[in-house]
Amino acid sequence: MIVQMKLSLRDEGGKRLLPEYAYGIYSDLLACIPEEYVDFLHEPSESRPLCHYLLPNKEDAGKGEFFLTLFDGELVSAFAPAVLATEEFSLHKYHCRLMVEQASRKTIRFDQIAQACFGQDKTPDSYVVRFLSPTVFRTQDQYALYPTAELILKSAMNRFHLLDCGLDVVDGDALEQLVQRARITDYSLRSRRYSIKDTTVYGFSGWVRLTVRGPLPLRQLFRLLLSALPYTGVGGKTALGMGGCSVEEF
């Protein structure tokens, strides 16, 4: 089961919302779910079956949207009542109070997405991945300054395996073929700092355009992996508010 919940938020004082608010909101929600799930989610891991991020409204600085996507049926049952019933969040660290103006929930049928990816003879020419919240990749024990096609695809595969969707279509050989054939052909990126707890993570935001050449099954697999990214997140620390993204096909 894949469920995405969205909260439309407004700062009571009209202050600009920050991407870092996501972790504060998530922490408040953790206080409302059964303790056994909290213990599970606090275990050290980059493979938690969820992601979340906050997207500030560019036209109205005092508003934004918080997205929480869950890939596990038990977590959905634990989180959904808390998320949908919460009316406000008091983020003491940031001296602000966020009012919930609207809450919604949708279930993603990934089998239908997969069918669309593999059921067509034509695939898009390119894909634009937009990094909506600060994003980071870890490579060789340090953070990468910018994304590569390889980093995006390896993250996409690792995150895809977390989905509770009954599909297991990605193996190491296929991934290596994708890495060899995929290219970033255009981009607009800028460095971004993301402050969490007592640490500053140096990442980036913006967008990249990806293309892939090769036989149809490989291009279909590429499309499937990228189709999952808006729900799984991309890169590291997706359970801390980083790595929110969207994907557009061209």
Secondary structure layout plus pairing:
Layout: E1 2-11, H1 21-30, H2 35-41, E2 50-56, E3 63-70, H3 73-85, E4 88-91, E5 96-108, H4 110-118, E6 127-135, E7 138-139, E8 142-143, H5 149-160, H6 172-181, E9 182-196, E10 199-212, H7 216-232, E11 245-249
Antiparallel strand pairs: 1-3, 1-5, 2-3, 4-5, 6-10, 6-11, 7-8, 9-10
Helix pairs in contact: 4-7, 5-6, 5-7
What does this structure look like?
With 250 residues, the chain is of the alpha+beta class. It has seven helices and eleven strands. The chain has a five-stranded antiparallel sheet with strand order 2-3-1-5-4. The radius of gyration is 18 Å and the shape is globular. The model has no long low-confidence stretch (mean pLDDT 93).
- Quantity of strands, as a count: 11
Profile the largest sheet.
5 strands, antiparallel
**What does the average pLDDT come to?**
93
Read across the widest sheet, the strand sequence of neighbours is: 2-3-1-5-4
Low-confidence stretches: none
Q: Give the helix level as a range of percent.
A: 25-40%
> What is the C-alpha radius of gyration, as a whole number of Å?
18 Å
Number of separate helices? 7
Distance between the termini: 28 Å
The dominant shape is globular
Classify the beta-strand content into a percent band. Answer: 35-45%
Order of helices and strands: EHHEEHEEHEEEHHEEHE
**Alpha-beta content class:** alpha+beta
